[in-house]
Amino acid sequence: MRIFVPFDARDPKTRLSSVLDADERASVAQAMLRDVLAALAETTHTPVVLATDSVDCAVPVRVDDRPLTPAVNDALTDVDGSAAVVMADLALATPAAIERLFATDGDLVLAPGLGGGTNALVARHPDFRVDYHGGSYHDHREAAAAVGADVAVLDSFRLAVDVDAPRHLAEVLLHTDGHTAACLRQIGVELTRTEGHVAVTRSTENRS
Length: 208
Hints:
This protein has helices spanning about 20-40, 70-75, 95-105, 135-145, 155-160, 165-175, 180-185; strands spanning about 1-5, 50, 60-65, 85, 110, 120-125, 150-155, 190-195, 195-200. The chain is of the alpha/beta class. The protein has a single domain, classed as Spore Coat Polysaccharide Biosynthesis Protein SpsA, Chain A (Alpha-Beta Complex), CATH 3.90.550.
């Protein structure tokens, strides 16, 4: 199986700008990539990072500065057999969750994200192509139906949380102790209790 990990190496995680500045967002994005690659490494598969610019990491990197959909689809055309796409911001991902994804039968296996996205998938149908333009979970089900591919859906909390908004940072600090959690703590992002929820705040001593 060929595995691709898309990664925005130029201006990542802009929706975290209310909590993190540009340099901090870049550091957190790199830390999340390291966590995803570490989880994948324990599955005995070697992924390819599909990045918008050069990236320093321990696996092969394919640079493609096009938008996500054409970049991934071009990569899929080079695959003879099954392929997987695992997003680089799945900081909660574990080897066990990824193994469940890879082991699930189906022409197309989808791991939906919160809000209707597609956080990871396995494609075993040669004619399936991705479409990441908003609400991609629904779009991918339609794309599979259009080519006659059957769909399996993986229910996984660990793969459902893609870190795109400040509230997702709380999930990282609650449920992980990897590179991303360490990076957030170094920056000064801390858990705080609100009425009925756990959220994050910035330590004033870490702000420039």
